[in-house]
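On clarity, I found the account of how folds are encoded harder to follow than it need be. What matters is that the chain and its backbone geometry are given together, residue for residue. For the editor and my fellow referees, an illustration may be useful. For illustration, here is how one protein appears when written out as sequence plus structure tokens:

___
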Amino acid sequence: MALALAETTTSNSIALDVEAVTHRYDLDGKELQVLDNVSLSVAPGEFVALLGPSGCGKSTLLRLAAGLETPTIGDVREDGRSITAPNPDRILVFQDATLFPWRTVRGNIAIGLEARGLIREREHRIDEVLRLVKLEGFADFYPHQLSGGMAQRAALARALVNDPKLLLLDEPFGKLDSLTRLRMQNELLDLWKNAGFTALLVTHDVEEALLLADRVIVLSDRPASIVAEIHVDQPHPRRRDDATLVALRRSLLEKLGISDDV
């Protein structure tokens, strides 16, 4: 299966394979199944978006890929190796920036390097990622002094300083205003192209998925299974009014059970 990859080498990325994964939670003695026999392969350097109803299990897939949980049934692999624990090669970015309010932007970005004992030898990376996310003039600011978009850029910088090979994004722009969201989408696309990591994005925004991703995976209601897969072969940058994207949007909305006049 031919895949459109980022315009970089794949040495900075990994392959992700979700193999026949079923996942359940035990809630006060009651079983809640969230994933049902899900299989998905993401190529090194590919950008894949996950769409589906709220609460269907999209975020659970990201947590499994991050190594924060292990599947009840099945296997999740990076480059052929089972994922059993978190690793700085795989970084999860949440909808909320979750910055430590008592640390400056620089201090927040440094956390991962400090935890790994790499701050002395890799401190230069902090300045590099600050420039990358266009926050070089705000290194000494505290989170309460930042706009929502700036705080989310700081959260991305905190992830990128670890040079992740897989970036897992759980609706990272969901709480931003529409204009900031558009800017952040473009910035994320530039980061992906320049850094070459593999990206797996959870979003409820059909247009966001089509503008960013090589493939869009549609999940069913919980317990989630894959009901559709759409390849987006248009080159970047993409236009919302492009006839191909408009047709794909209509198709995705139909698969999600939503009228195409929204």
User: Anything to note?
Assistant: The longest strand covers residues 30-42. The chain has two domains: 1-89+164-262, 100-163.
